[in-house]
Structure formats: C-alpha cells, structure tokens
C-alpha cells in the first residue's frame, strides 16, 4: 500500500461564488474526505487558504501571492492510502473541486523514506 | 439492607478501596498480599456478622479489621527482618511504619494513583482492563472472564503476567509528574473507554454485569474529573460521552435482553438526569485547543440524545463522523457515518458509499445495506438481511434481522 497526495488546483472560490455556494462546496469536501476516511484510506490533509500567502523568489525577494485567480493554484491537499495511482485517481474523481471547469486534481505518490523513492 | 445483600454490596464498594490503600502502602511487590488481606477482611466479616449480627458502622468495622490484619502482617515481616535478616535493618523504621491510612482523602488518592500505575504502557490494554476490573472495581475472576467471554484460567494467567510485569518494571504507585500527565492520561482514558465499551457493546447476555461495567467506567472517569491535577478536557469529554450513552441503557434492551434499535427506542425511557450530566461535562470539555476523539464522539452522542429527527441533527452527526473517522477509524464508526449520510443526504448516495466499505465479515454491514435498500429495492434488501443473518452471532441480533426479513416479505 502506497500513500498518495491528492492536490487540489483551483480558483479561489470566495472570488467567484456566494457564501452559500461556498458552504455547499465545504460540505461536499467534508463528505468526500469522510467517504475516504470511512474506507480507512485517509492519512492526512489540509486546506491552504489563499489569503495572506507569500511567494519567495530566487533572489530572496518576497511578494504577496500566489493569488487564487488562476486555475493552477494549489488550494489544499489530502494524503490517502491506495494500492495504485489508479485507485488514488478514483478517490480524486470524487473531489468537488472538479465541478469547476478547468480545475484539476493532481495525484502524486509520496516518497517513502527508504531511499528508493 | 439485609446482611446477605449487604456483604456483596460492601465488597463491591469497599474491597477496591482497601486494596488500593494497601497496595500503595506495600507496593506492587506485595500486591497479592494486599488482595489477600482485603479478601480475608470480608471473610472475617461474613463469619463474625453471621454470629454477632451487624456492627453499627459496617464500613468502619471493615477498615479497622483490614488495618489490624495489615499491621499484623507488617509486624510479622518486621520480626522476620529484624531477627532473621538483621543486615537489612538500616532504614526499617521508616519502611516499616505500620500505620494504614484509610481516610477518605487517602482512599481517593490511592485509587487515582493505582489507576495510573495499572494503566502503565508496559502492560497490554486487555490486561490493563482486566487488572482495573480486579483492583479498581473489585470484580471477581468469574465476572471478569464472563465480561471478556473467556475462561477463568486465561484471565488468571493474564492478570498474573500483568502483576509480574508491574513488579519487574518497578512501576511506582503515584501520580505522574505534571508534565507527563497528559501522555499517561491517554492510556488511562483508553482503558476506561474499553471498560465502558466492554459493557455497552459486549455480546454477553448478562445485562446486570454489562451495566455494572459501564457504571464502573463512569465512576473511574468521574474520579479523574473531580481531581484538580487530572480534570483535563479529554477527561470531561469521555465522561460526557459515557453519560450520554448510559442515558439510553434502559431503552436499548427489551425484557428478553434483546437489543432495541435506536429508531425503535421508547424515548421516555431515556434517563434525563444522565443526559443533563453529559451536557454539563461536554460544556466543561470545550476549553483549550485540543479536540480529542472523545470530544467528537461525545458530540455525536449528544445529538443522539436529541429526540427530534431533523435534517440539522443528521447533518451535524454526519460532519462529526467525517472528522471522527479521520482521527480514529473503526468499522462501526464507518457504518454509522454511512447511516447518517443516508439521513442527511440521501439513501441512494449512502448505498454507493456503503458498498465501498465492503466489510463482508461484519453482520452490521449487511444489516445497514438491507436497511438502505428497503423501499428502494426490496429484493436486494432481503438478500442483504439474509447475509447478515448468516453471520449474526447472538440470538438477540438474529431476532432483529429475522423480524426485518419478515417485514420485507409482506411487501413482495
């Protein structure tokens, strides 16, 4: 069994939707995570709020951002247990983020600390 | 109270106090001696009271006899030590101080300290529960083996090994240092939680025994909640959880000992007093920044004490289970979460989610699917109930499932 990060890439919902719509998405996200946890496949996860974010550049310059105006911004991730990348991708399909056209879920295996990656 | 009822009653309430005080005084090295002295005290009581009638204050009488027996034992030891082995005399005056303090304060302190000592991580959880039942709750080996659905020999061996381990590891009977309390408290709460569940979910048919287990767990947790060093938020949360569950004790069993499902319970049998207590401790637990699994479970239990079958109730329960499963997965919680999903969202969605769980060796998995398919696809519902029936273990469970199948057949 491997662990996979399911990375949510999407626009900042607060910029495009009403608080009521946000609440619906929030519930759907919680139900989606609950479904994975009920299968005993949930490892960890967190949301990454868009406000008060910083980008540090190679010249050590710090700017505000990234801003959630583009669909490639990371909005959060969860880590799941799965037999294969395909099984992990099945979990990802249930994420409500995908309701937004152009939003994506990225599935990445977590490197094991055994030097083998 | 008549004498023949009084002695078992006193045994249950006083044996553990005497053992805790004596154990703390003697240390784990002489744990069996402490248990022997406590048992002999009750034997003496049974014999003496039979001839002379009840003393005016039976509890004080028991303490005095236990104190005397302990003193005699220490005196004999002292004689041995001074006459036979004089070389170990050096600090005997301190070590062989023969006073046995059975004041309420010392009894309470000793029991708390014993709780932490018994729940030391060096012995396995089931041994911690067994030893707690023996030492902290005064249960007999018969009752412990019945609670664990095991035999006396196995339990005796398990307790023996646990005592040996505590001796070998030189576990001291004391409260952990303040910095360590949170960590050690975890193990104590786990044991209390297991003890409660043993009573609440056990498949033993002995209702009285099961209820006793639950109330013993509550009593131990209440002691932690009442002590200034140990009344931490998870303690209050666990206590709330147990009060909420216990409030439904009378409603969840019928006169034949069969389980009554939540939906069919007579809510007038729910114990309002216990629900109030649960509410008090749930409020008290809501401080600090840690959200333990007990907090989540107590909140779920709180919603279960709310009679009205509202969307809000089930949405709250669903979200609590969503979070609970992230920190403490169990098949039961997964099934309960799916039931809440059906109530909060829809049966159709819950069926899809239920089948993903694929807990094919669990009767409740099939029973849940049967429940969800009922009214949607009654033939599938029946097949699922039949699968549940095939692996159900107790007559009470089989009865419930049989009834469901009967109801379904009327619909074909």
UniProtKB/TrEMBL annotation, chain A:
It holds the Pfam family YCII. It comes from the Bacteria. InterPro entries: Dimeric_a/b-barrel (IPR011008), YCII (IPR005545). Residues 4-109 form the YCII-related domain. Belongs to the YciI family. This is Transcription initiation protein. It comes from Mucilaginibacter ginsenosidivorax.
UniProtKB/TrEMBL annotation, chain B:
Residues 184-286 form the DUF6596 domain. Pfam families: DUF6596, Sigma70_r2. One of its GO terms (molecular function) is DNA-binding transcription factor activity. It comes from the Bacteria. GO terms for biological process: DNA-templated transcription initiation. Residues 10-77 form the RNA polymerase sigma-70 region domain. This is Sigma-70 family RNA polymerase sigma factor.
